[in-house]
Automatic annotation (TrEMBL), chain A:
Pfam families documented for this protein: Fer2_BFD, NIR_SIR, NIR_SIR_ferr, Pyr_redox_2
Signal peptide positions on this chain: none
Domain (Nitrite/Sulfite reductase ferredoxin-like) ranges: 552-613
Alphabetized UniProt keyword annotations: 2Fe-2S, 4Fe-4S, FAD, Flavoprotein, Heme, Iron, Iron-sulfur, Metal-binding, Nitrate assimilation, Oxidoreductase, Thioether bond
CDD domains: NirB_Fer2_BFD-like_1 (cd19943), NirB_Fer2_BFD-like_2 (cd19944)
Annotated EC: 1.8.7.1
Quaternary structure, from the entry: Homodimer which associates with NirD.
Biological role stated in the UniProt entry: Catalyzes the reduction of sulfite to sulfide, a step in the biosynthesis of sulfur-containing amino acids and cofactors.
Gene: nirB
Location of the FAD/NAD(P)-binding domain: 18-293
Gene3D superfamilies: BFD-like [2Fe-2S]-binding domain (1.10.10.1100), FAD/NAD(P)-binding domain (3.50.50.60), Sulfite Reductase Hemoprotein, domain 1 (3.30.413.10)
Entry superkingdom: Bacteria
Family of the protein in this entry: Belongs to the nitrite and sulfite reductase 4Fe-4S domain family.
Identification of the protein by name: assimilatory sulfite reductase (ferredoxin)
Automatic annotation (TrEMBL), chain B:
InterPro entries (alphabetical): NirD (IPR017881), Rieske-like_NirD (IPR012748), Rieske_2Fe-2S (IPR017941), Rieske_2Fe-2S_sf (IPR036922)
Keyword field contains Glycoprotein: no
MF annotations from Gene Ontology: 2 iron, 2 sulfur cluster binding; metal ion binding; monooxygenase activity; nitrite reductase [NAD(P)H] activity; oxidoreductase activity, acting on paired donors, with incorporation or reduction of molecular oxygen
Organism for this UniProt entry: Microbispora oryzae
Keywords attached to this entry: 2Fe-2S, Iron, Iron-sulfur, Metal-binding, Nitrate assimilation, Oxidoreductase
Name under which the protein is recorded: Nitrite reductase small subunit NirD
PANTHER family: NITRITE REDUCTASE (NADH) SMALL SUBUNIT (PTHR40562:SF1), PTHR40562
Length: 834, 120
């Protein structure tokens, strides 16, 4: 990079020049942007035939599902004179001028052709009929959308990458959609026959008609003169009111051809490794260029070409040496990826037509080197393996097919491995940017290196690299502690620290914040340090823990009493109703089998708790990063299918683990049989009854990113079950990150489920006795936090709206009525923000 | 306030409203004080210093800043709104993550062991 900058100075000597660019697509945009970024001083004029500035063509289809033109349009760099809606019709090489369809002539010192390509429309009879389209520009999409309105079915001619994307678009527009492909299988350039057949199965399952090995005899018009059907060579007619041609692209080399520049036999403007044509004043870049005998139809190589040409224009010596044509896409919801070569001496194949997964790796004859691969249905190996193409295999081939199962990660890559193929960024460049600029997140990497800004498929790798290089910075909880939560847990328990002040004085800086304080509070609570509002601990708690209730949007709180297993007597139900009525609270059945009383002001909380505690209720810890509920189904007591007493077990477990503080909330459920009415497999630990005992599932999650729990152990006795859960929870509490649910924790745990089993069932780390002792301490010291608060006058004093007016309710809190219950009246934000 | 009172605020005698005894304030926690109908959040930091901000969280429209977690950012004492965790400087009222947003600050003192706030 630095060398290139010096080269830019060299250009300065040559003086300002007039640069004209023909075509304003993504490649032209990248060229102009790079030139201006690097201090090009000449005048830049860009001609674009489309009536708008360049936009992200790769994301074209998103225009049909919600993205606006604005979202897709690139910002026009300052200082460019842009002439959109004006087509260049000729190049006058002798006078160094271009001529446009507006009759204008524009002189140039340097000319760059970035005219891209045009869809190829095979000479099929009927191809000019109204209702026939190509799929390349915003205007095309507008026209297709109009035609689809009122149409019933559509056909895409061409089953390649763009054809399937067009088919997805038609489907999205509500058309019954068919794809006609000449080759024996779909996407012949990206996948092999096996992959093609799995892909076909997946696409047919979505309801699309797939016709491979099929040409087109003609396109027929209906009585209205518009397209009505497509006829195949075998005479079969497919009804269609919309036909989209997507049968390949042809470089737009017509200007070059007419002005005598050399073009390839099958099209494309011939350029050298510096992207220059035979005329030293003319460059060609992007999909119109034939570089090293190839026309590149992917945006990544086009961008590289633009950067090479820009460097040359600035006097540099960059050269274009071919490009990685690997692709990873999601078409019609099916992941498809291809990298490296599509053949090799040896190969390993996994094929599951039912599950819709196909993976094949190509390997050198000595079984040492990875040559390439094809994936359909699960492209995970793409991210982990693409960078290893041409390098020694990072693991056993069969393992590599299942990414995540022992294969190398991108963080282990050599520095020169390409991570972002769209923008040609290597791992080394990314790590360098992270170090030099102190980057801490993916947006930072995007900004500094451009990696991840185009198709986005490298984003998971960026994250991995960040994690790996951020070991020292990244794990720090916040600015006050250079440690991870797990490290703090060890420090606190090994050193026997009992206060935040001691911890931060000895191991941190400053006075903490809303991130580290609750985290430390939770660790202290997990290790059994008394009531969470005792002494200094009170100041560490988030407002919910501080008031033992959940804050709501108007500053009131909600109260959720524990209802173990969801089982409740009529008398207790009546008490809840009476309390709610007497305090004017809103009531709602929660998603976790209990009842929420909402709208309590702080000063009402102790009185509400008093009533509930007197009736035998206790805190449900809805406010804490702690055990929430153990849901249950009715189980064998009532249900005709039940094989065990799920309610009894759920209650026992809820009472055992109640009040247990953890890195994030903990949820559980017990189902009485495999019908799973309690949804146990979406819980942090879930139990399903079997004839022989209990199956224990762990690390499930509903919420933001649902995950089904994994079976940890089967047919356990109740005693074995409880011991295993004890250890699972304590091991999680010790080692997880702040606000990491068990699902994310297990996914990040090296060695995964097997490792977890070895630690808590085979005691491979020799810590089980410790874990058991910690749980025993928890169960022995549990007290109800509400009762402890109402019995302690010191704690009670905090429950006022105003210290100087304990009897005055907060006047800002008001309610209106909706469906016979209260509802907060909110201060409009404009007023709040003045 | 009357229409006749033309004295500029700075020249007026400050009115102090007693809040609570200093000893009742937990280190690194806040309390809400009602001062002439206005809600003021008073905080005591670890080193014993008092600060007063408006209790209205401008991001949520709820009067809750007194219930936030007190801490530091680069050494400056701060409180994080309990609603959506925006962090405000206790010294200036400026939102650390969004300096265009500022909450009012008020004078606060201890007199005879009693914390007093002025919101005039
Ligand atoms: C009250 C309740 C909704 C309801 O009316 O049903 C609720 C309310 C809140 N949920 Fe929930 N969740 C409630 C059941 C659930 C469930 C269903 C369940 O537990 O079976 C789920 C999905 C299951 C799961 O967690 O895996 C659920 C997934 C979440 C999540 C996403 C967690 C995740 O891992 O992605 C959050 C956000 C978070 O915790 O960071 C959340 C956060 C919240 C918070 C705390 C948001 C907030 O900070 O204000 C809500 C306030 C609680 C309160 O009482 O004021 N709530 N929440 C439910 C209380 C259940 C209870 O009795 O304790
Ligand atoms: C639907 C769709 C999906 C795609 N998805 C992917 C993908 O996932 N990954 C990927 O890598 N690539 C993808 N591509 C390909 C990618 O869009 C192209 O590689 C890229 O657009 C090439 O850029 P370009 O600037 O060279 O050419 P173009 O984008 O074709 O731009 C050339 C511009 O020049 C204009 N022009 C031509 N002649 C003249 C003239 N004489 N005077 C003035 N203006 C002229 C044209 O109107 C056009 O606006 C996709 C393409 C499409 C259509
Ligand atoms: S789903 Fe969202 S809005 Fe509804 S209770 Fe849960 S967190 Fe609140
Ligand atoms: S690989 Fe497409 S953005 Fe990085």
């Amino acid at each position: 990079m630095n060398e290139n900058r010096n080269a830019a100075k060299g250009e300065e000597r040559a003086g300002a020049r007039r640069l004209v660019v023909v075509g304003y697509g993504p490649t032209a945009h990248r060229l102009v942007e790079t030139l201006l970024d690097r201090g090009f001083t000449g005048a830049v004029t860009v001609f674009g035939e489309e009536p708008r500035p360049a936009y992200d063509r790769v994301a074209l289809t998103s225009y049909l599902d919600g993205k606006t033109l604005e979202d897709l349009t690139y910002p026009v760099p300052d200082g460019v004179s842009l002439r959109v809606g004006e087509r260049v019709t000729a190049i006058d090489r002798d006078n160094r001028e271009v001529v446009t369809d507006a009759g204008a002539r524009e002189p140039y010192d340097l000319l760059v052709l970035a005219t891209g390509s045009a869809p190829f429309v095979p000479p099929v009879p009927g191809r000019e009929l109204p209702g026939c389209f190509v799929y390349r520009t915003i205007d095309d999409l507008d026209a297709i959308r109009d035609a689809a309105d009122g149409a019933v079915s559509g056909v895409v001619i061409g089953g390649g990458l763009l054809g399937l994307e067009a088919a997805d678009a038609l489907r999205g527009l509500g058309l019954r959609t068919h794809v006609v492909e000449m080759s024996p299988w779909l996407m012949p350039r990206q996948v092999d026959e096996g992959g093609g057949s799995v892909l076909r199965g997946q696409i047919e399952a979505l309801g699309l008609g797939v016709h491979t090995g099929a040409g087109v005899r003609s396109i027929e018009a209906g009585p209205d003169g518009r397209v009505s059907a497509l006829v195949k060579p075998d005479g079969e007619a497919i009804e269609a009111q919309v036909v989209v041609f997507s049968a390949g692209i042809r470089p737009r080399d017509e200007l070059a051809r007419a002005s005598g520049l050399e073009v390839g036999e099958r099209g494309g403007i011939v350029v050298d490794e510096g992207m220059r044509t035979g005329d030293e004043h003319i460059y060609a870049v992007g999909e119109c260029a034939l570089a090293g005998g190839m026309v590149y139809g992917l945006v990544g190589p086009c961008f590289t070409q633009a950067e090479v040409a820009a460097d040359r224009i600035l006097g540099g010596t960059a050269s274009f040496e071919g490009a990685d044509m690997s692709t990873k896409l999601k078409l019609l919801g099916v992941e498809v990826a291809q990298f490296g070569a599509m053949s090799g001496a040896l190969d390993v194949t996994y094929m599951d037509p039912v599950g819709g997964v196909y993976k094949r790796l190509f390997i050198s004859d000595d079984a040492q080197t990875l040559l390439g691969g094809v994936c359909v249905g699960d492209a995970a190996p793409y991210n982990t393996l693409r960078p290893f193409v041409g390098r020694p295999l990072p693991g056993a081939p069969s393992d590599l097919l299942f990414a995540g199962a022992g294969g190398g990660t991108s963080a282990d890559l050599p520095d020169d491995a390409q991570v972002c193929s769209c923008n040609n960024v290597t791992k080394g460049q990314i790590t360098a940017a992270i170090v030099e600029n102190g980057l801490t997140d993916v947006p930072g990497i995007k900004k500094c290196t451009r990696a991840g800004t185009t198709c986005g498929s490298c984003l998971p790798m960026l994250k991995q690299i960040l994690v790996k290089s951020g070991v020292d910075v990244g794990k720090a909880l916040c600015e006050h502690f250079p440690h991870s939560r797990a490290e703090l847990f060890d420090i606190i328990s090994v050193r026997g620290i009992t206060t935040f002040s001691q911890l931060i004085a000895e191991h941190g800086t400053g006075r903490g914040c809303d991130i580290c304080k609750p985290a430390v509070a939770s660790i202290l609570a997990s290790l059994g340090n008394g009531h969470i509002l005792d002494g200094e601990q009170a100041a560490l708690q988030d407002t919910n823990d501080h008031f033992l209730a959940n804050i709501q949007k108007n500053g009131t709180y909600s109260v959720v009493p524990r209802v173990p297993g969801g089982e409740i007597t009529p008398d207790k139900l009546i008490v809840i109703g009476e309390v709610a009525r007497d305090f004017g609270l809103y009531t709602k059945i929660t998603g976790a089998q209990r009842i929420d009383l909402l709208g309590a002001r702080v000063e009402q909380l102790p009185a509400i708790w008093r009533r509930l505690v007197d009736a035998g209720f206790e805190s449900g810890h809805a406010y804490g990063k702690a055990l929430r509920t153990v849901k249950s189904c009715v189980g064998s007591t009532w249900c005709r299918y039940g094989v065990q007493d799920s309610v009894g077990l759920a209650i026992a477990l809820e009472l055992r683990y109640r009040g247990l503080r953890s890195p994030h909330k903990l949820k559980s459920a017990v189902s009485g049989c495999a019908r799973e009415c309690a949804e146990a497999r979406s819980k942090d630990f879930g139990i399903i009854a079997t004839e022989q005992g209990w199956n224990l599932y762990v690390a499930g999650n509903g919420g933001f990113k649902p995950r089904h729990a994994d079976l940890l152990a089967a047919d356990l006795s109740t005693e074995e079950l409880v011991r295993t859960i004890d250890r699972f929870l304590m091991f999680y509490i010790r080692t997880a990150d702040r606000l990491q649910r068990t699902a994310a924790w297990l996914e990040g745990l090296e060695g995964g489920l097997d490792y977890l089993r070895s630690v808590i069932m085979d005691d491979s780390l020799g810590i089980c006795a410790d874990l058991d002792a910690q749980m025993a301490r928890h169960t022995a010291t549990y007290v109800d936090e509400w009762r402890a608060a109402i019995e302690d006058p010191d704690k009670l004093r905090r429950f006022v709206s105003f210290v100087n007016a304990p009897d005055v309710p907060d006047p800002s809190i008001t309610f209106e009525t909706e469906r016979d219950q209260i509802k907060p009246v909110l201060i409009p934000l404009e007023v709040a923000r003045r | 306030m009357t229409v006749l009172d033309q004295t500029p605020p700075s020249a007026r005698r400050r009115e102090w409203t007693p809040a609570c005894s200093y000893g009742d304030m937990l280190p690194e926690r806040g309390v809400a004080v009602l001062v002439d109908g206005r809600q003021v959040a008073v905080f005591r930091t670890f080193d014993g210093v008092l600060y007063a901000l408006d209790n209205l969280d401008p991001y949520s429209g709820a009067y809750v800043l007194s219930r936030g977690i007190v801490g530091t950012r680069n050494g400056e004492p701060t409180v994080a709104s309990p609603m959506h965790k925006q962090v405000f400087s206790l010294v200036t009222g400026v939102c650390v993550d969004d300096p265009d947003t500022v909450v009012p600050t008020y004078p606060v003192r201890v007199s005879d062991g009693i914390v007093e706030v002025s919101a005039a």
